[in-house]
Amino acid sequence: MATSNKTESFDYLVIGLQEFLGQKKKYPYPDLLRHAMNALSLEMKQSIPFPKTMSGFLRLLEEPVKDWCPSNFIPEEFDRDFGLMDEGSFSEEANDYLTEVLLDKGRIPKYASTLVKQLVIDHLKFTIILDKLRDVYNDSDPDKAQQEYLIFRTFLIKNKYTTISQIRKAFLRTKHISIEEVGDLYEECQENQNYWYCDRCGILTEKYGRLKGIKPSLCGNHGKNQSYVHQVKWETDLLCIKDGIHQRVCFPGIPELNLYSALEKLQKEHPDYLKEVKLYPGLDRYDLQLRFSDDSGWAIDIKDVRDPYKLAKKLTELYGEGSLRYDESFYVISDRCIQKHPDYLEIARKEAKKLPHTTHLVSDKVFRTRVVRKIAELQTGGTV
């Protein structure tokens, strides 16, 4: 879909705001931000005067965009019930739009700052590694490619902070992924800085003494005394995963690995019935593959997306050819999404026009119960 000049101005506003908030000095304002502000000032809703100061403009951006932005400026991918800022920071919705729409669809303009262009470069670095492994998987050595992909992806998810020596140890014997390539997905930590992470959502940033993650609507309680919040002590060569990789790999990977660990534990307890649990089969065609003693197979893809309407547009039939064949398929939605939105599953099912009715849409809790029930049925000689 072509981007109109109006929605392009909205894109400039999102990118320019991200650049502005990332600057150490607030002057001069980023070119894209000035361009967007000029376009807005000419077409803002008449009932809302354009702010006379930058502080007033930033306060306006805290409000839902539907309340102040011309409707023809707002792209359909952006939820107009949210603002571009939240408590003085780039909002979750704005961050999602930047990374999932502008970056993924190549809509970053050539005039963007070095800071934003670096996000594009980091995005591309991960894609290059993935594409290289896919070529190996398809052309010569699928087992080796799969093995190295598991090492690579799980390392990024588990190690939000790391060191060069840890990277070297993990990737010393990988044939298709170099230590340098992995190191490029991290950045150096600064001495005398405080660093934090959350077991549930990853990297935390500190502002005015408060800790905040990248998805505060799903994981918002980050008191420093919480058992799942941890401080990282600075050491020589300490590295932190880059923002784009954290958003693309780490955050969605946390519930994936949590469910995998739970199923792996079940498999060890009932090896005669749950025969195999595979993580990221086919280089992540879907997240998990289960094989049971009756030779049935389940394919599972885990989703941790706040908005059921947004998720529904992305739900399609899971690939099931060759070794990836399955008898039943599942989209498993994280429990925290459903806790925030009790009608989540009903909305997602109704709006997912491309999703076959044979694919199950269930919560994480319900899915775990179904696996336990399947094992129990096999133990008594029945079927599920």
Describe this structure in words.
- 45% of the residues lie in helices and 15% in strands.
- It is an alpha+beta fold and 384 residues long.
- The strands form 4 sheets. It has a 5-stranded mixed β-sheet, sandwiched between helices. A 4-stranded antiparallel β-sheet has the order 7-6-5-8. Strands 3-9-4 form a 3-stranded antiparallel β-sheet.
- Strand 6 and strand 7 form a beta hairpin.
SSE layout and pairing:
Blueprint lengths: L4 H18 L8 H13 L10 H7 L24 E2 L2 E2 L1 H12 L10 H26 L2 H17 L2 E3 H8 L7 H5 L2 E3 L6 E4 L3 E6 L2 E3 L16 E4 L5 E4 L1 H27 L4 E6 L1 H4 L3 E5 L4 E7 L4 H5 L15 E6 L1 H6 L3 H8 L8 E4 H16 L5
Parallel strand pairs: 12-13, 13-14
Antiparallel strand pairs: 1-2, 3-9, 4-9, 5-6, 5-8, 6-7, 10-11, 11-12
Q: Name the overall outline.
A: globular
Largest sheet: 5 strands, mixed
Radius of gyration: 23 Å
Indicate the percent of residues in helices.
Answer: 40-55%
Q: Find the count of extended strands (DSSP E, 2+ residues).
A: 14
Name the structural class: alpha+beta
Overall mean confidence score, pLDDT: 89
Number of domains: 3
| pLDDT < 50 stretches | none
Number of helices: 14
Task: Assess the beta-strand content as a share of residues.
Answer: 15-25%
SSE string? HHHEEHHHEHHEEEEEEHEHEEHEHHEH
Cα(first) to Cα(last) distance is 44 Å
Strand order of the largest sheet: 10-11-12-13-14
What oligomeric state do these chains adopt?
Answer: single chain
Give me some keywords for this one.
globular; 5-stranded mixed β-sheet; 4-stranded antiparallel β-sheet; 14 helices; 384 residues; single chain; Trna Endonuclease, Chain: A, domain 1; alpha+beta
